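Re: that chain you flagged

S.,

Sorry for the slow reply, it's been a week of failed gels. I finally had a moment to sit down with the sequence you sent. For the record, here it is as I used it:
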Amino acid sequence: AVREWGFYIASRDSRLDVASFWTLHLMLRPYLGGKIQPPSSSKKKHCNGAKNGLVPSTICLAAALLYFAGGSPYDIAGVFGISVTEVHQSVWKVANTVNHKDNTAMHFEYPVDWAAQQRIAAGFERKSKAGFAVCAGAIDGILIWIKRPTFEDCEIAKCGAKKFFCGRKKKFGLNMQAPCDAEGCFLNVSIKH
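Prediction finished late last night. Pasting the structure tokens below so you have them in one place:
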């Protein structure tokens, strides 16, 4: 998928360089799904139940990354020769794979160990011109825009729709905050209303 996509276009469109794509693919591949079994009534057994054959995990990941970067499902479908439905299914496959309970490579949390926090602070001190010695993470956030939550969404979240409204940006959304270390690697992520 990435070879046909091209190095420059892949990096620009997905905001991920090719080496990072392959590293991410290796981490997610075991969880991206197995062989599709056709329904017993299907006459297309040679395609394993898929009209044009199976969508490889590389295409699935590339389509999801383009979607996450803001691409239109219709454009993504045209780029990879898959259906718009498959683009959406790829997004959910990748999201579920990242959140899979057995996928320990994608799980991370802020270290509670004092020595680990000291190492993070030492990294910031080395990079700081001001000599900050007690900074154990740089934090930033983003509002992930969403449509106004339905009544059912609010029931699941156990709060009203107003909790999802950002007064400053005048939009509904989820607030994501994440600290990183001195190398820019995430230490934790929190996405809440």
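What I noticed first: The helical segments are 2-5, 7-14, 18-28, 57-68, 73-80, 84-98, 114-127, 151-157.

Talk soon,
D.
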